[in-house]
Design brief:
Layout: E1 6-9, H1 12-15, H2 19-25, E2 30-35, E3 38-50, E4 78-83, E5 87-94, E6 101-112, H3 114-120, H4 134-141, E7 160-165, E8 173-176, E9 191-194
Antiparallel strand pairs: 1-7, 2-3, 2-7, 3-6, 3-9, 4-5, 5-6, 8-9
């Protein structure tokens, strides 16, 4: 018998920990996106950790900028960035305030509101692909830069929050190199995923972008 997921919101002190503790502990948690058309609930199945100024792969490696300011805390806030001029990606800030660490949400299973997610992900061949990859996840949930800085631990009406869900057993958590990260940051085995889950995205090594001649 499958246990009913816990709908208790995660407290701020859950996020106020080192990023390599928070990242695997997010697997199995529920991300709730409230929209004017109704809620979408996603069970997290894949994430990546980024350790700020200690991590060459992090947006905050070279310090604070207007773009990455949310990464410096407080923990439990949402960091959204726009990449390749096309896609948004969503992160959850963690660690002590001022540390600039965050967890990229890479993939998940839509457990409620799939009919709404499908209207945003018309190219998905099935529901397992609705949020299979960080840009697809953000698109399915209607995530954009207007949500950058949202407090996912706030009480009352909030567009995003994270619930306790059903944490994944440690023997079902896998880890390996982060996807598409170049240079020194590419060697860190800081991608975490649920073993054998069909919503997890495939690993891809970094491929340098060719300049146009």
């Amino acid at each position: 018998m499958i246990a009913t997921p816990d709908r208790t919101p995660l407290p701020r002190d859950f996020f106020d920990r080192p990023v390599l503790q928070v990242a695997p502990d997010l697997l199995g948690r529920l991300l709730v996106r409230e929209t004017p058309d109704g809620p979408i609930v996603l069970r997290l199945t894949e994430v990546e950790a980024y350790d700020g100024q200690n991590d060459p792969g992090s947006h905050a490696y070279r310090g604070r900028t207007p773009r990455n300011a949310v990464m410096f805390g407080p923990p439990g806030h949402v960091y959204v960035y726009f990449t390749y001029g096309m896609w948004h990606c969503m992160n959850l800030v963690c660690g002590p305030e001022g540390r600039s660490s965050a967890v990229l949400l890479r993939a998940g299973e839509i457990v409620e509101g799939a009919e709404l997610a499908r209207t945003r992900r018309l190219s998905a061949r099935n529901d397992k692909e609705l949020a299979k990859g960080p840009a697809r996840l953000a698109t399915a949930l209607g995530i954009d830069r207007s949500l950058d800085g949202t407090d996912a631990c706030a009480t009352g009406d909030t567009p995003l929050r994270v619930l306790t869900g059903t944490p994944v057993e440690r023997d079902q958590v896998r880890n390996g190199p982060r996807t598409g990260v170049a240079g020194e940051g590419g060697v860190h085995p800081w991608r975490f995923w649920v073993a054998d889950d069909p919503t997890v995205s495939p690993y891809r090594a970094h491929v340098p972008r060719r300049r146009r001649s």
